[in-house]
Specification:
CATH architecture of the largest domain: 4-Layer Sandwich
Number of domains: 3
Strand order of the largest sheet: 1-16-15-2-3-5-6
Bound molecules: manganese (II) ion
Mean pLDDT: 87
CATH topology of the largest domain: Purple Acid Phosphatase, chain A, domain 2
Structural class: alpha/beta
Low-confidence stretches: 1-19, 424-442
CATH superfamily of the largest domain: Metallo-dependent phosphatases
Distance between the termini: 62 Å
Number of strands: 19
Strand content: 15-25%
Shape: globular
């Protein structure tokens, strides 16, 4: 499989031996790819409230101006599992404005839609619905922020799908086995298979792969060649043995993986060292944490597919608020600034003030000139300290910059220096050690809840609700900001219990 990922001016720039041989607009599929838009993030903040919507609108505008065939999103369209009415309304407005219209769609949908959308509530693709006028179909899986929850197990994407604004796929209700039936589409001579896998807990997914319980239903060989694209939403970076999806585990027949969930932009496709496939991680379109990775330039991309070749055009997002991150080690300045010779607090604050000023000027370089870009910058200075006397009141300090940065209250973050002890190089890691490590690693809120009740005295154990239910409630409140979780899940539990009781009465 050949690929190129340099910027392109037009599809005619796609290289390869077959270039020029029928590679006209009718044969090239153009796909807008983006992920982790986190609509509604910080929406109540008077300064930053609209940031997530601005970036999403920019992506939609690029989709229209580049005349793409469809938009493919990698999950976390919304920040909250139950987005506010404000977020839902703004999102619907944008989708209506940019993806409805009378443009002709030249995609043939070839697979069985009742299978592709089997666990979702949209039973067919929106652009074939005679009651809708779709100009750019949007396809999306869900992420860990907008996954199905509550009574009816609905995702916010189900609501958008019911309105005909999104084609929601890759949802699974049976998590004991995953049969992934790709969406099959054709445009001219190009045939595309999209394998969608919405977010599943990493450890569960890895186990399913290891137990051969993930089956990719590839198209019949007689149907010719397919470009095999997978879209998923999992941890890619190694965050502990049970906490990420190793790329190696993915089947080698794939050509391209659109990787959602990781917010750092690594949109340039990276070829796997062993397999042929390329992994493309566009990253989020709005920062949801003030970390170094989120300060990297944000992008969306246009993926052009022609037969078995692809090319990716990276599009830097120009409406994203300037954000500069820096980490300094306070201890390394102690001598020069005379921290230990009295008046420490003021001396440290003088250093930090100097640094913040530099970051504010650096942020000016990130002003793009786009009329919609908010220019008041996000600045984060991480101050690593060894001596607690080097700390000061960061919130009060931030107020000095109240009119010059978008985040005065968390401009400065103190972090205690953790001295790591060098590990011995001759420690042998065997299979058993790894298993023990896995067994001993607490990786999530669920693990903590599970462990607590396992060790609890008999009198403290749960009697009506199982730990599974409590886990689900805790996870949703802590990780997904779903404040209705307790109410909706408990109602569902009691409703199911009531149904069982009534059915017993009638028996
Ligand atoms: Mn995300």
């Amino acid at each position: 499989m050949a690929s190129e990922s340099e910027g392109i001016a037009s599809v005619s720039a796609v290289g390869g031996s077959e270039a020029g041989d029928g590679m006209t607009e009718e044969n090239v599929m153009k796909i807008m790819i983006a992920t982790d838009n986190h609509l509604g993030y910080f929406e109540k903040d008077p300064v930053r409230g609209n940031d997530s919507f601005l970036a999403f609108e920019e992506i939609l505008k690029h989709a229209v101006s580049n005349d793409v065939d469809f938009i493919l999103l990698g999950g976390d369209l919304f920040h909250d599992a139950t987005p506010s009415q404000n977020s839902l309304k703004k999102c619907m407005d944008l989708l209506r404005k940019y993806t409805l219209g009378s443009k002709t769609i030249s995609l043939e949908f070839l697979s069985d839609q009742t299978i592709n959308f089997v666990d979702c509530f949209n039973s067919s693709v929106n652009y074939e619905d005679p009651n809708l006028n779709v100009s750019i179909p949007v396809f999306s899986i869900h992420g860990n922020h907008d996954d199905p929850s509550g009574y009816g197990l609905l995702s916010s994407l189900d609501l958008l799908a019911t309105c005909g604004l999104v084609n929601y796929f890759g949802k699974r209700t049976d998590l004991t086995k995953l049969d992934i039936y790709p969406i099959l589409m054709r445009k001219g001579v190009t045939q595309l298979a999209i394998y969608g896998l919405s977010y599943i807990h990493d450890s569960r997914l890895v186990r399913l792969f290891m137990d051969d319980k993930v089956v990719m239903k590839t198209p019949d060989e007689t149907t010719g060649n397919w470009f095999n694209l997978m879209v998923l939403h999992q941890n890619r970076a190694n965050r502990g043995l049970k906490n990420y999806l190793p790329e190696d585990i993915l089947p080698p027949f794939l050509d391209f993986i659109l990787w959602g969930h990781e917010h750092d932009c690594r949109i340039e496709p990276e070829q796997h060292f062993k397999h042929q496939f390329h992994v493309c991680q566009p990253g989020s379109s709005t920062p949801t944490s003030l970390s170094e990775g989120e300060s990297i330039q944000k992008h969306c991309g246009i993926l052009c597919v022609y037969k078995d070749k692809f090319k990716l055009e990276k599009i830097p997002l120009k409406t994203v608020r300037p954000f500069v991150f820096k980490s300094i080690d306070l201890h390394s300045y102690a001598e020069d600034y005379g921290f230990d010779e009295g008046d420490t607090e003021n001396k440290v604050m003088a250093l930090v003030r100097e640094q913040v000023e530099k970051l504010i000027s650096e942020a000016e370089e990130k002003v793009t000139g786009h009329p919609d870009q908010p220019t008041l910058p996000l600045i984060r200075l991480r101050c690593v300290y060894e001596n607690e006397e080097h700390m000061f009141n960061a919130i009060r300090f931030g107020q000095e910059f109240a009119t010059r940065v978008a985040n005065p209250s968390d401009l400065i973050k103190f972090k205690k220096l953790v001295k790591r002890v060098d590990s011995k190089s001759d420690i042998k890691v065997d299979g058993k050690a790894i298993k023990d490590m896995m067994a001993n690693t607490r990786t999530s809120v669920e693990d903590v809840v599970e462990e607590y009740f396992e060790k609890a005295d008999e009198s403290d154990k749960l009697k009506i609700m199982s730990t599974k239910v409590l886990n689900e409630v805790t996870n949703r409140i802590v990780n997904r900001n779903d404040t209705t979780a307790a109410d909706s899940i408990l109602k569902w539990v009691f409703f199911s219990f009531f149904q069982i009781c009534t059915s017993l009465i009638y028996i």
